[in-house]
Amino acid sequence: DPLYIVDGVLVDPSVSGSPLSDINADDIVSIDVVKGAAGASLYGSRAANGVVNITTNRGKGLARNVTNVKVRSEYGFNELRKDYPLRKSHYYRVAESSYTDANGVKVDSGDFIDRDGNFVDPRGKGLRIGDRYTGNWDADNPDEQDKATIFFADKPYKYISTGDILLDGSLQPILENGKPKGLRTLPGGNLINQMDQFFDPGSFLTNSATISRNTGATNFSLSFSNRVEDGVIEGLDGYGRQTFRLAVDHKIRPNLTASVSTYYGNVDRDDIYDGVGGSFFGMVFTGGDADLQARHAPVGT
Description:
By secondary structure, this protein is mostly beta strands. The protein contains six helices and 15 strands. It has a five-stranded antiparallel β-sheet with strand order 5-12-13-14-15, with no helix packed on it. Strands 2-1-4-3 form a four-stranded mixed β-sheet. The longest helix has 8 residues, at 36-43. The radius of gyration is 32 Å and the shape is elongated.
């Protein structure tokens, strides 16, 4: 990040971050950018990535004995830049390459896994009854139940897109005391648009007021701003910012001027981790039958 200078005050972004999001845009008079080595020659190694010099309003440009009052209100909406389509593949199909057996051997689509979670080569002599990709368990034969394979939900879960998107009649194991007892058919149902559940277009409102005056010997600018932004994610409070700024210049004598700049800013940001492993990243890989707004799973699943 570059080094920021606001009204002659150095702001190190490595300590406090970029000040651009904390300054009321109506207070900015000019922004000058000094690139590369030129900035370092003026301000040292901290400016190796350049310098951004920000000058705010101080009332200097007004005619003598003139007071300027500016009030502004801005209202708008936040939306996603694009809509993400529904996922029609089960998570185990999307991320099947990340699954391994009990010995750390990569499990590919179509592989066999035994009841101990180990990879079994179906062409080998060690394949046992029950060591199948999806076992057909005999509920009336306890001995065969013990030989049944661990269920690897890859192929049995699949979605089709004919007319309404429905869950195909897939097979799922019925477990009793942790052991497979049989198979059941999953009921059909519409896929859930998790993008609509997770995101909701929100509004933002910004109010600001500035008073500036020049008396000849003294000029000043006083401003206040308040911004409230709902954001686009359900359940979060969004973003709020309040700023207060006072800048005064007083000419003591023709060759001596005293200047004072004060600034106060308060920012409340309710956001989520947006990197790999964050909520949005995980949602993209969530199965299309998962209801993000369901507090409790339906009975019997």
